[in-house]
Specification:
By secondary structure, the chain is α/β, with parallel strands linked by helices. The protein has six helices and 16 strands. Strands 1, 2, 3, 4, 5, 14, 15 and 16 form an eight-stranded mixed sheet that branches. It has a six-stranded mixed sheet with strand order 6-7-8-9-13-12. Helix 2 runs parallel beside helix 3. The chain is globular, with a radius of gyration of 19 Å. The termini are far apart.
Length: 307
């Protein structure tokens, strides 16, 4: 009897892994989220397409086709980890080309863009950073080439910068931070100089969110966590690879007067090619004016599967 139970559990585990590898990691979907947050003196609406953690490989036809099918947005933001391998730089730039925004196209890079991904023992994800005995050896990737090609294609690199601009009549103070997960963020650029403008912040890892919120940015986008990548019923994400609480692993989260959107991402490492109960996602954030009699409010998400 015990042997049958063990065999049944093993069979279920194998089936779940097979589903995660063959089905769910390719089940790309578009999720629409409404957020009433814009000031009254700006446009009535602004659409932001948030992409993250694409982890493109040299031949990634299904993901490329999904990206080409996405609706046009006013602003498109990619929050890093374009690459699953450095040989895919050109493929990644071509894949995001159709997604560029009508008004602006912004990006920051992530650790997998800076360094060549390598196989990793999954157990290391459960060990706190300060308890890991030795640093991993890394090989530099093709980040500079990636930046050059994206800039030539009309994208703007937001790495560790603050700027002031207008989007359809909306005065914006824009912050971009490098990947906090590998200590590349420069918080010296974060303090606001135009507090009357609408504050937008872009970062790869959500670990910088507390400092960004403290500086007064109202709308923040981040990626990096993959939404946990593997989630279990009642438990949620097993690992977040972030210093933030697990409840902040994915989705639209209110932090004081600010909103943080953490993308579950569209890809996986090529050395861990599976997802479970955490489908790959592109998010269309539909920003509207805040209610005149209260603070910002978010609407329900509306997922749509890839055609």
């Amino acid at each position: 009897m015990l042997l049958r139970i063990l065999l049944a559990i093993a069979g279920i585990a194998v089936a779940c892994v097979a589903y995660g590898v063959v089905v769910e990691r390719r089940a790309f979907r578009l999720v629409r989220r409404g957020l009433a947050i814009l000031p009254a003196d700006g446009p009535e609406a602004l659409t932001v397409l948030h992409l993250s953690d694409l982890h493109v490989v040299r031949s990634d036809r299904r993901k490329t086709a999904f990206l080409a099918s996405l609706p046009a947005a006013d602003v498109t933001i990619v929050t890093g980890d374009f690459l699953a391998e450095p040989e895919a730089v050109e493929a990644a730039v071509a894949a995001v080309r159709p997604t560029r925004g009508r008004l602006a196209s912004w990006f920051v890079l992530g650790s997998n863009d800076y360094y060549v991904p390598r196989p990793r023992n999954p157990i290391r994800y459960f060990i706190p950073h300060h308890r890991r005995r030795s640093p991993r050896r890394v090989q530099r990737g093709r980040a500079d080439e990636m930046r050059t090609l994206l800039n030539a294609d009309g994208w703007r690199d937001l790495t560790n910068l603050r700027d002031e601009l207008e989007l359809d009549g909306l005065s914006v103070e824009l912050l971009g931070l490098d990947d906090a997960h590998i200590g590349r963020q420069d918080l010296r650029v974060a303090p606001r100089e135009a507090p009357s403008a609408f504050g937008i912040a872009v970062t790869h890892s959500p670990d910088s969110a507390p400092e960004i919120v403290a500086c007064g940015y109202r709308f923040i986008v981040a990626g990096h966590t993959h939404g946990g990548q593997v989630r279990l019923p009642l438990i949620g994400a097993l690992v977040t690879n972030s210093h933030l609480p697990r409840r902040l692993v994915s989705g639209l989260i209110r932090l004081g007067d600010s909103f943080l959107h953490v993308s579950p991402g569209l890809g996986t490492s090529k050395y861990a090619p599976f997802r479970f109960l955490c489908p790959p996602e592109a998010t269309l954030l539909e920003l509207g004016r805040a209610p005149a009699d209260g603070g910002p409010a978010r609407s329900n998400a509306q997922p749509q599967k890839a055609q």
